[in-house]
Amino acid sequence: MLFSSPLFLFAFLPALLLLHALAPRRARNGLLLLASLLFFGWGEPVYLLLMLGSIAGNWWFGLRAERALAEPRALRRVVGAATVFNLGLLGAFKYADWLLADLGRGLAALGLSSGAWPSFATLLGESEFAREWLLTDDRRLRLPLGISFFTFQAFAYVLDVARGDLRAEPRLGRVALYVSLFPQLVAGPIVRYRDVAAEIVRRTVTREGFAYGVRRFVIGLAKKVLIANVVAVPADLVFGLPSAELTGELAWLGVVAYTLQIYFDFSGYSDMAIGLGHLFGFRVLENFRHPYVARSITEFWRRWHISLSTWFRDYLYVPLGGNRRGEARTHFNLVTVFALCGLWHGASWTFVAWGLYHGLFLVVERAGIGARLERLPRALRHGYVLLVVIVGWVLFRADDFGRALEVAGALFGAAPWSSAVRPLAQELDSLVVCALLAGALGATPWLATLQAWHRRATEAAERPRLHAALDCCGLVAVVALFWLAAVQLASSAYNPFIYFRF
Fold first, then answer.
1. What are the structural domain ranges in the chain?
2. Which letter does DSSP use for residue 185 in this model?
3. List 278, 305, 331, 345, catalytic entry
4. Fewest Cβ atoms nearer than 10 Å: which of 150, 253, 358, 473?
C-alpha cells in the first residue's frame, strides 16, 4: 500500500484517523499496531511473518543484553548473536542470490566451476506458493518491503540497550509498534526507540500538531506526485535509451531529472511519514535538510538521508574508531562506512562503487581540500557539490557499469550533442518543464523561509483579520496542492517509491 494511492488516501487513512480519535487511550497502541501490520501485510502477507520474527528476536535480544550489562563477556555474546541474526536476515533475503551468482561466475571464469551456483529460486522449486509469493517474474527472490529499514531500526534498539543508553522494554507490543509503525515502516526515517519511547507510552494529539501533520503530509504528497513522478518519465527514458540514440543533451536531461526525482521521491516520503506521525501524536525526526544547497560533500551528507548517515556514524564509524586513531585510520573508516552504505542500498556492485565514490570525496575533503574549498566563492563550492552528486547519481541509477560509463561519457562529450533520431524537445512537454523548474526551486529552502515568515507574522499579528487571512492563505495552498496531486494521481500510471526496493 502506497501513501500516494487512492486506497490509502481515501479509505485506510481516514478510517484509521476516525478509529484512533474514538478509541480509548489505552487501546490506541493496539489499534496502530494492527493497522501497521495490515499496512505491511497488504502487499507482503508472507513476509509479514519475517518482520514479526525480526521484532520478536530483537525484543528478546534486548532483554538478554540488559541482563548481561554487568558481564562484558556475556554481553559480547548477546551482541554478536544479535548481529548475526539481523545481518543474516538481510544477507539471506537481500544479498544471497547476488553473491552466489557472482561467486559462480567468478569460479567459472577461473575454470574452478562448470555451472551456475544454486539460488534461492532453485531451492524453493516450482511450487505455486513460491511463484505467487516469494519469487519475481525473472525467478529471483522477492525482496521484502522495507527490510533494510526495519532491520536497522530493530537492531539499533538492541545496540542502544547493550550500550546502556536505553532500558530494555519488557512489553513486546511496544517494541512491535516501534518497529512496525506504518508511517516510517518501509522507507524510513530510521527512528531510534529512545526518540519515541515516551510517545509510545503516552501521547497527545493537539489541534496544532494535527494541522501541522496535514500540511506536512500534503507537501510530501505534492513532492512525490507533482515533481518526482513527472520527472521520472524522462529519467527512465534516457537511462533506457539504446547507445546509438543517447546524446549529450539527453544525457544531461536524464541525469538532472533523476537528481530531482530521487530527492523529491524520498524527501516526499519522509515528509509524509513526519506528517502522519503528527496526526497520531508522534514526533518523527527530520531526514532531509535541503542537501542540494550544500557547499561540500561533507555537508551534503549532513543534510541527505540524515537518519541513515547518523545510524552508520553511531553504530559503525564510531565503534571502528571514528577520527580518534590518526588520519590513515580515519580515512579507512570513512571509506569502509560508505562502501557499506552503498551496499545497504542494493545488491549490486554499482551501489558499492557509488558508496566508495562518496567516501573518496569525503577523504579528499578531510585531507585538506575541504579547507581550500572554504576559501572559494560560494557559487563555485555549490557547483562543485552539484557536479559530484549528479555524476554519482549516474552510478546509482545505472543498471551496470557499462551503462554508467555510457551515460557519464555522454555527459562530458563522448556522444554527439544533437540528434535527428530523438531530439530533446520531444521529451520536454510543458508538464515536464514545469516539474523540472518546480524541482529546482523546491530543492532550495525558499519554502522553509516562507513558512518561517508566516509563523513570525502570525505570532506578531495583533489584528484578528490579518491572522485569519494568513491562515486562510495557508489553507488554500494546502487544499490546492492536494487537489492537484489527486488529479495527477488519477491521470498517471507511474507511482512507485524508489526507496521501497531498498
1. 6-203, 205-291+423-502
2. T
3. 345
4. 473
